[in-house]
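Email to the structure team, subject: Enolase model.

Hi all, the expression group asked for a predicted structure before they design truncation constructs. Nothing fancy, just the C-alpha cells so they can compare against earlier work. One-line instruction: predict Enolase, return C-alpha cells.
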Amino acid sequence: MAVARAAAQDRGEPLYAWLGGGVANRLPVPMMNILNGGKHADNSVDFQEFMVMPVGAPSFAEALRYGAETFHALKAILRKRGYATGVGDEGGFAPDLGSNEEALALIVEAIAAAGLTPGRDVAIALDPAASSFRADGGYALDKSGQGRKTSAEMTALFQDWIARYPIVSLEDGLAEDDWDGFHAQTAALGDKVQIVGDDIFVTNTRFIRCGIAEGTANAVLIKLNQIGTVTETIEAVELCRQAGWRTVISHRSGETEDSFMADFAVAMGSGQIKSGSACRGERIAKYNRLLEIERELGPKALFGSPFAS
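Reply from the structure team: attached below.
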C-alpha cells in the first residue's frame, strides 16, 4: 500500500487513477452497518451486521445522505421505544431486541421514517457471520434464544426473510467450513440475492477458484489486509470478474482512519464498498475520501446499483 501511494505521488496521479490504470471512475454503493449483533455487540442479536444499501441513489453523495438519514431515523425510533442507542464495533446500534427479525422490521421502519422507499431507494444487506455461532455441525442461535438450526433450516430462514423484506445481499449466511451448505444456499437463493463469501474465501484466490468451480457463492468480500498485498487483492478481484462474480471491497472490524480502500474500490470498479456505519472516525474517513473522489471526477463519475439489470 505504501509503495502504491508513493508511485501515484511520483506520477502525480490520484491513487485510484494509478491503481485503476487511469480509467477508474465508478463510485461504489455503500453497505452501511446500522444494527450490530453477534460478536460485535453485547446484546440479544445473533447476527453480526444489518446494513442498508442506498441502491436507488443517483450519486455517491446522495447515497451517503440516504444512509445517514436512515441511521439517524433508526436512532430516534430506538430511543422512542426505550432501546439503547450505544454503538457496536462498526458503528451500528446494538440494542437488546426481541428477535433477530425485529432488526429487519426496525430498519424498514427507519427507511420509511427518513422519507425513503424500502427496496427502491434503500435495500438491506445482511452479514450474519455464521462461523461465530457454528456449533456441533449446526448453528446455535443462543443469544436470541431461538435454538439450534441445520444448514437447510438457516437457508429456509433467510428465504422467508428475503420474501418479506427488501434484502439484496447475504454474506456468510453459513459458516466457513460449510461448503455443501453454501452451495445449496446459492442454488436456492442466488437468483434472488447476492450470496457473498467472506470467511469461506478469505480473499484467497485458491479458495475463490474452488468456490467458482463448485458454485459455492456468487460474490466475494475483498479485504486488502486479509490476503496481505495489493497485488494478491487485485488478482482476487480479477478472478471474480472473469467468473462473472461480484466483489465487495471491505474494511475490517478493527480499523484505522487510513482511506486506501476507498481509492481501491474506485480503482477496481467493484461498485460496492463495506466500511461501516455513519459514525466513528475510522468509518467516516472512507466516506469522506469517496466524496472527494466523486467531486474530483465531476461529470465522469459513474454511480448506480450493482443489482440493476
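The CA atoms of residues 48 and 223 lie 18 Å apart. Residues 20-296 form a domain with the TIM Barrel fold (CATH 3.20.20.120). Ping us if the truncation boundaries need rechecking.
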